[in-house]
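Translate structure to sequence.
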């Protein structure tokens, strides 16, 4: 069961994305679910990172896949967003999942492989996620990563992540053994939303930073929205 409002990248408009600070703020605002991106360090540890390179969201340089987890953990991932978040670290997936469990948050772990690391990232993320004590769903744009995650942890629920919902979405969900579809909000129609729900699948849409747009999507039968602005809703609506 999906929470209706999911903090995208831990609530990326309010705090530096993919950080524990963001997660804590989302929880304080009453959010019950969070989404974040998990990528492998050079030594194969899943860390929270959206881009393949470090420049946009940290004080580091170069590729995430070329630095050890211990080196990534020392980078400042907060100052770029606001000086008040200076020295906020890049967390590991294990740290984030443990905080989700502590705060009672549902998690969507998006498997975000660096180029050419789809299978390995799916496998490693699933191995770490299977040990978590919180409820979670794995998702990915990469079918290869999802297949590899399924092989490593068959019982973890999986979602197929797409930009545009393809005409053969039923076959693709079946092929991946996925229980949900995550799609860009733009382009989702009432017709496809109702067909996805009628098929027994959850449908979550990204990225929705406007209450009216979310209202329209919920009215179509969309299960949940990913937002950078969880502060737009009050706890009772989440
Ligand atoms: O999982 C939904 C959304 O996060 C996918 O896009 O690029 O923000 O990871 P992106
Ligand atoms: Mg994501």
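Result:
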């Amino acid at each position: 069961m999906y929470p209706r409002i999911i903090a995208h990248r831990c609530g990326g408009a309010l705090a530096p994305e993919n950080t524990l600070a963001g997660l804590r703020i989302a929880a304080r605002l009453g959010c019950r679910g969070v989404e974040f991106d998990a990528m492998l360090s050079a030594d194969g540890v899943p860390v929270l990172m959206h881009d393949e390179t470090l420049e946009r969201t940290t004080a580091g340089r170069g590729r995430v896949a070329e630095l050890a987890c211990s080196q990534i953990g020392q980078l400042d991932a907060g100052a770029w967003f606001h000086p008040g978040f200076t020295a906020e670290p890049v967390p590991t997936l294990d740290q984030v999942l443990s905080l989700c469990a502590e705060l009672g948050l549902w998690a969507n772990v998006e498997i975000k492989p660096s180029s050419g690391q789809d299978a390995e990232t799916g496998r490693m993320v699933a191995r770490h996620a299977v040990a978590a004590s919180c409820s979670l769903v794995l998702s990915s744009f990469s079918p290869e990563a999802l297949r590899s995650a399924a092989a490593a942890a068959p019982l973890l629920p999986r979602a197929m992540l797409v930009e545009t919902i393809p005409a053969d979405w039923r076959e693709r969900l079946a092929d991946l053994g996925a229980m949900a579809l995550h799609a860009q909000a733009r382009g989702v129609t009432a017709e496809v939303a109702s067909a996805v729900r009628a098929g027994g699948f959850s449908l979550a849409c990204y990225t929705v930073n406007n209450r009216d747009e979310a209202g329209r999507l919920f009215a179509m039968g969309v299960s949940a929205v990913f937002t950078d602005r969880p502060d737009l809703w009050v706890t009772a609506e989440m």
